[in-house]
Amino acid sequence: MLERPDGPELLEVARDVLLQDLLPHLPEAKRYQARMVANAMAIARREATADPAPALAQLRAALTLPDAAPEALLARLAREIRAGAHDPGTAGHAALAAALAEMVRLRCAVSAPRALGG
Questions:
Q1: Is 86 exposed, middle or buried (0-12, 13-18, 19+ CB in 10 A)?
Q2: Are 107 and 70 a contacting pair, CB within 8 Å?
Q3: How far apart, in whole angstroms, are the C-alpha atoms of residue 76 and residue 59?
Q4: pLDDT tens figures, 5-38
Q5: What is the pTM for the complete model shown?
Q6: What is the rounded CA–CA span in Å between residue 44 and residue 63?
Q7: Where are the domains of the chain?
């Protein structure tokens, strides 16, 4: 970014203000909603800083689609999985399983980092 703070930093500061300065002054009935907003802000911050390029590159390599856009890549993957093209014992199964594991790690790092032990 050209300026500081950038978008992810602004989300982090706003979340801190919400949780530390505003939440204690909210009525108990509104605290759950405030925590949901804070959680959404944390997810948005992590998503903005996540780099999907390595996981997508691994998936492209496993499917031998080096130039596929993410949406086309995932659509083809879904079709091929439904057709059984990547079942255990098929050629490329291990590479695809590793690529999918990387995609899951990326998604968990964004939406549920505690699931990864963090």
A1: buried
A2: no
A3: 11
A4: 999 999 999 999 999 999 999 999 999 999 999 9
A5: 0.81
A6: 29
A7: 7-49, 53-116
Confidence of residue 1 (pLDDT cuts 50, 70, 90): low
* Closest to 18 (Cα-Cα) out of 41, 1, 2: 41
* DSSP-derived secondary structure for the chain: --SSS-HHHHHHHHHHIIIIIIGGGS-HHHHHHHHHHHHHHHHHHHHHH---HHHHHHHHHHHT-TT--HHHHHHHHHHHHHTTTTSTTSTTHHHHHHHHHHHHHHHHHHH-GGGGT-
Please give the Cα distance from 5 to 12 (Å, whole number). 10
Largest CA distance in the chain: 59
Tell whether the model's pLDDT for residue 118 goes beyond 80.
Answer: no
Residues 6+ positions from 31 with CB-CB distance below 8 Å: 23
